[in-house]
């Protein structure tokens, strides 16, 4: 029972889209999630994040978080069911808004504590692209 969701929180991140903490992939700005106590403690311990516990009233009136993409964006992506090892790659794909499968060079990312850019393998890129294609949803 300790891992049941217990809190609705608003996590404010200034990190690039795809930043992960406590098993949650975040976008820059506000991210509203339901978290467990261990996740909450991990999020609060990250000095790069601001975490606010939402009251029942705030949660009831909250509008769902849509990914950035400008005014009139019709694409919504929910990464809550994405494989942990691919979520940051899927987020990068979503940010690119590609019309075709991106190259591994286009999906390069940085990892805390590792020098230089990291690139996904071709297999990771293919798996992330496949997941993205199957889970992107029109918000119209």
Distance between the termini: 37 Å
Percent helix range: 25-40%
Number of helices: 4
Instruction: Write the H/E string, N to C.
Output: EEEEHEHEHEEHE
Largest sheet: 3 strands, antiparallel
Read across the widest sheet, the strand sequence of neighbours is 4-1-5
- Which consecutive residue ranges, at least 5 long each, have pLDDT under 50? 59-73
Q: Can you offer a commentary on this structure?
A:
Pfam families: FluMu_N. This is Mu-like prophage FluMu N-terminal domain-containing protein. It comes from Pseudoalteromonas rubra. Residues 9-56 form the Mu-like prophage FluMu N-terminal domain. The protein is an alpha+beta fold. It has two domains: 7-61, 3-Layer(aba) Sandwich (Ribosomal Protein L9, domain 1); 75-138, no CATH class. Helix content is 28%, strand content 24%. It is built from four helices and nine strands, in the order E-E-E-E-H-E-H-E-H-E-E-H-E. It has helices spanning 37-45, 56-61, 87-96, 122-135; strands spanning 7-13, 19-21, 24-26, 29-35, 49-53, 75-76, 109-110, 117-118, 137-138. The strands form four sheets. Strands 4-1-5 form a three-stranded antiparallel beta sheet, with helices on one face. A hairpin with a 6-residue loop joins strand 7 and strand 8 (117-118). Helix 3 crosses helix 4 (122-135). The longest helix is centred in the last third of the chain and has 14 residues, at 122-135. Mean pLDDT is 77; it is low at 59-73.
């Amino acid at each position: 029972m300790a891992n049941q969701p217990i809190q609705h929180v608003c996590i404010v991140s200034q990190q690039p889209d795809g930043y992960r903490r406590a098993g949650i992939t975040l976008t820059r700005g506000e991210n509203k999630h339901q978290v467990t106590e261990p996740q909450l403690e991990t999020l609060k311990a990250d000095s790069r994040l601001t975490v606010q516990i939402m009251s029942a009233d705030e949660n009831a009136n909250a509008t769902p978080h849509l990914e950035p993409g400008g005014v009139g964006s019709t694409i919504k992506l929910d990464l809550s069911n994405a494989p942990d090892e691919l979520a940051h790659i899927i987020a990068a794909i979503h940010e690119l808004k590609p019309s075709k499968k991106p190259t591994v060079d286009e999906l390069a990312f940085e990892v805390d504590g590792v020098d230089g850019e990291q690139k996904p393998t071709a297999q990771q890129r293919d798996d992330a692209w496949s997941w993205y294609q199957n889970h992107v949803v029109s918000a119209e």
